[in-house]
From TrEMBL:
<dbReference type="GO" id="GO:0022900">
    <property type="term" value="P:electron transport chain"/>
</dbReference>
<keyword id="KW-0809">Transit peptide</keyword>
<dbReference type="InterPro" id="IPR006885">
    <property type="entry name" value="NADH_UbQ_FeS_4_mit-like"/>
</dbReference>
<keyword id="KW-0472">Membrane</keyword>
<dbReference type="InterPro" id="IPR038532">
    <property type="entry name" value="NDUFS4-like_sf"/>
</dbReference>
<keyword id="KW-0679">Respiratory chain</keyword>
<dbReference type="GO" id="GO:0016020">
    <property type="term" value="C:membrane"/>
</dbReference>
<dbReference type="Pfam" id="PF04800">
    <property type="entry name" value="NDUS4"/>
</dbReference>
<keyword id="KW-0249">Electron transport</keyword>
<keyword id="KW-0813">Transport</keyword>
<protein>
    <submittedName>
        <fullName>ETC complex I subunit-like protein</fullName>
    </submittedName>
</protein>
């Protein structure tokens, strides 16, 4: 039962950074999921997969798992890389790709 502590990345469907500032504690699965033969649902007998705890800082999450004696792994938060671009760059003479229309 290893806990994973991470800060979630921005989803592709978001333009803002909502829900990405808090740290999340999830448990890694102990057993594989199985397909229920009658209805085809995916299920698991591992109840720890349903637990998700949120913390304001990484230190709070680490203090929680240490206090409860839970083995853990911290994943480094990946920062978003923003490329600067301007609309005028579409009309430059030294464009990398040629203008097509």
């Amino acid at each position: 039962m290893v806990a994973r502590i991470y800060r979630p990345a921005k989803t592709a469907m978001q333009s803002g950074k909502a829900q990405t500032h808090r740290w999340v504690l999830d448990y890694e699965p102990e057993m594989a999921k199985s397909v229920e033969p009658l209805m085809g649902y995916t299920s698991s007998a591992d109840m720890k997969q349903q637990i998700r705890l949120f913390f304001e800082t990484q230190e709070e999450a680490v203090a929680y798992v240490r206090r409860h004696g839970i083995p853990y792994r911290v994943e480094k938060a990946q920062e978003r890389k923003v490329r600067g671009s301007a609309y005028a760059d579409n009309f430059k003479f030294n464009r990398v790709a040629p203008w097509t229309h």
